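Task 17 of the worksheet. Students: predict the tertiary structure of the chain below and write it out as structure tokens. Keep your answer in the requested format; marks are given for formatting as well as content.
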Amino acid sequence: MKITLVFATKLEAVAFINHFDLKPHQSYNNLYVNGDLHLLITGIGMLQTATHLMHYALHFNSNFYFNLGIAGAFNRTIALTEVVQVNSETYGDFGVENDEEFEDFFEMGFLEQSTDVFSYGLCRPIIDKIHEKIALRKVSSITVNKVHGNEKNIAIIQEKYKADIENMEGLAFYYVLNVMQKPSIEIRSISNYVEKRNKNNWKIKEAIDTLLLAFLEIYTNIK
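Model answer:
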């Protein structure tokens, strides 16, 4: 089985590269390989993720995709460094500000709530038997172009979407692989809570460490 790990940054990916002894692909930038295991670094955000992931998927025939990385949590019952499985993604800041209110393009009628990719405004992965072997807490997520750090805006977004976490790539990941008809799963480790910016509270290294441990357990079960 050919498996592809998708990361936004090398910071998040380096522990995986080292553990699996992945080597740079000879002719494809930001791709690391070892046999049937590939690791792709797309860059941060929806645009880079969608572009590089689609390009990769057109050139390599992978059976299953993992999106791995860190994320911020709205839901305070999720512990810092906890690893979670993202079951749905939607836009978190794709719309129009109307004074102190925010209307997204689903509400405004510019995007259909239900299509071949979205169901009630949510984008979900194509399910595969691998999903049955992942025993992580299931959460909902929004994908954003800017990480929230303003208390007033955080409250508005929490009330509107009631998402458990936020990240900057997940929706693009699920969207592209739905279009490509490829099974996938997004797995995130919580590095911080979504709050007024305070880097002293962040646990990036620890979150990456727990992400690797969680993935190793999954990888052992699916090989």
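Marker's comment: The chain is about 30% helix and 30% strand. The radius of gyration is 17 Å.
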